[in-house]
Amino acid sequence: MKKTYIKSILAGSAALLAVSCSKDFLDESPTRYVTVADVTELSGIHPALADGTVRGIYEMMFTTGLGGTTRHEDFGQKGYDIYSDMLSGDMALTVNNYSRYSNFAQLITTTDFTYLQANYTAWRYYYRLINAANLVIKGLGGNNAVLTDAKNKASMGQAKALRAHSYFNLAQLYMTEYSETSKVLPIYIEPNGNAKPQSTTKEVYEFMIKDLEEAVVLLNGFTRSDKYQINQEVAKGILAYVYAARGTAADNARAKQLADEVVAGGTPITTKEQVLGGFNDIAKNPSWLWGVDITLDNGLDLVSWWGQMDYFTYSYQFAGDKKAIDVGLFNAIRANDVRKKQFFTGSGNNNLIPFNKFYAPQRVAGGQRNITTDYIYMRVDEMVLLSAELAARMGQDAEAKTQLKKVLSQRFDNAADYAYVDALNGAALQSEIHLQTRIELWGEGKSLWAQRRHKSPVVRGANHLFLAGQTIPYNDDKLDFEIPQSEVQNNPFIN
Length: 495
What we know:
Layout (H helix, E strand, L loop, with lengths): L11 H4 L20 H7 L4 H14 L16 H12 L2 E6 L5 H4 L10 H24 L10 H25 L8 E4 L11 E3 H18 L13 H15 L2 H16 L7 H4 L12 E5 L12 H5 L6 H4 L1 E5 L1 H5 L43 E5 H14 L3 H12 L17 H15 L6 H8 L3 E2 L11 E2 L12 H6 L5
Antiparallel strand pairs: 1-5, 2-3, 4-6, 7-8
Helix pairs in contact: 2-6, 3-6, 3-7, 4-18, 6-7, 7-8, 8-9, 9-10, 10-15, 15-16, 15-17, 16-17, 17-18
């Protein structure tokens, strides 16, 4: 039975707290919602208030329109997962009857800061989450508070992890590679604050790492009630991604340590059966580390991730804006790999859509109108593959092969089918791990992150409706977002 745990009175407390880098967008003392003063005054007495405000941030992650528009691509975290997968080239827009993602897929949006699509919505969405997290942190005593109450520590740990997660997504979307001295994002550590100048990439990464290292400590001993909450394992997973993105030798070693600790927690790898099971129910996918149980109370319909990705949901993927796997990537999947079956093969508009990876369980074409299928944010397979990648980066080829084969053993029927891995070393092994990461996590919003780490070019296959056959360098300016026009106009520190 589906639960309605995340729909609460307090959920709205964070959901509509406006945020931007300009005072013009801020409401210092919103009368309809919980304020900084409310949380500050009451959280010490009633820790549930801080916890409820954190719940509101989680609801923001799948709230439509939080990017400040009514566009049907504006539906929270999973919307930006689609954008990032398209940037990587692994997700192809193959049919475009309704023009959703059209300008983005042509890489027009990413070179023109006047476009609301992507540029504005991502900026507004993530800074709203950051503002809401800052509300919780301020209410619990501020960034340097020393907490003793277990519930308040858990709330603080989640808020800091959510803040860092938002900054990490911004960093991945608004820059193509790590460059210490480049000015990139304004850092806000207080709610509803004045406009700030852009900090350097080095400063942003140091800030994220500080937040997440503190979150890992604060979340020690926290037992979550549901998987929509960030626990210590999820915080470690996010932190591993941040270290791996920065990529120094010390960072790689720390990232691998964190990934291995997550894997050691005992969460099982996704099985062969689950790989074809629809990725639609958090209760039936024990490999999920972080996700949300979507219910009818959440009010999602065609404007949703499922609407954009699932043929069996009444929306764009069903009706004519098709998102499919890049044909070159599909051809790289070995014939006896179970993941080859995730995609429809045949003539017509549905060729290579994720027909057997993401689907509403009734499997009626266009049948799901009101969304009850769940959202996935992270699963343990990611950490196994990241551990393999980092081991290969550090020259630990034997360890890298061991980790990689943990996943491949659940994708092939016989060990002989993936024995080819044993002959790989050095750059060839690193490329194979990158390939397997792209295949395994297709459509889950991780392909761009892997591409940034691997520094590999985007190669668009023949089935892309736009820019088919083109090769684009990984650090091309077309592959990151522009700071939106509204921010440039309203923040006096950004030129």
